[in-house]
Design brief:
By secondary structure, the chain is of the alpha+beta class. 46% of the residues lie in helices and 13% in strands. It is built from nine helices and four strands, in the order ααβααβαααβαβα. The chain binds flavin mononucleotide. Flavin mononucleotide binds next to loops.
Length: 207
Amino acid sequence: MNKKEAFLNAMNERHACKLFNDKKITPEDLEFILEAGRLSPSSFGLEQWKFVVIQNQAMKEAIEAVAWNQQQISTCSDLVIILARKNVRSSDAYTIKQLQRFGLPAEAFNSFVDMYKGWVDGRDDHTIEMWSEKQCYIAAGNMMTAAAFIGIDSCPIEGFISEKVDAILGIDTRIFQTALVLPFGYRANDSRSKHRLSFDEVVEFKK
Ligand SMILES: Cc1cc2nc3c(=O)[nH]c(=O)nc-3n(C[C@H](O)[C@H](O)[C@H](O)COP(=O)(O)O)c2cc1C
């Protein structure tokens, strides 16, 4: 199989897995998946995410109970919770630290920060939180594809009560909020057939 075939094969194999079997993901494979998240792109290079890996069964069950009792959560091998960072205003220390990493000369840095201010500071908190969550979804997509590439299943989960998951995790909600619940493991059942719009329905070329 060439690289393109191998990649598309992984894309086809990935499905929203509803139930996992008992098989555990090895630490090396889990690290590979998390690396795909860590290396993901983010707006302004802000990396406004954190990946919390839940391996504790009682904690998985508590989260499942506030996520429509979706069994993927308690049956998975590793439950990744993606947290979105909320404190990303231009005055926040985290933001400054991230923007400084590019090592720009003072003048270029100041205009970069001005551009950032123009983008972020005029927007309300909810819009900013959703902006951070968008970045988290990119990391989630990459982690799911990476997992599928090595034969590991996953399921993106948005069906949960955010404040309750935040409380179970004990996170500081001034800094983070739960963006996505993302279990990984090995499927217990065959996947359903894939339904997608055709290429021509979703792709439009302007020549
Ligand atoms: C952001 C997002 C949230 C989702 N939330 C849930 C969920 O809470 N529970 C679930 O079983 N599937 C969830 N899904 C899975 C979708 O239903 C699924 O990806 C879609 O139906 C296509 O099926 P496939 O992924 O098996 O190809 C979610 C998918 C995305 C991208």
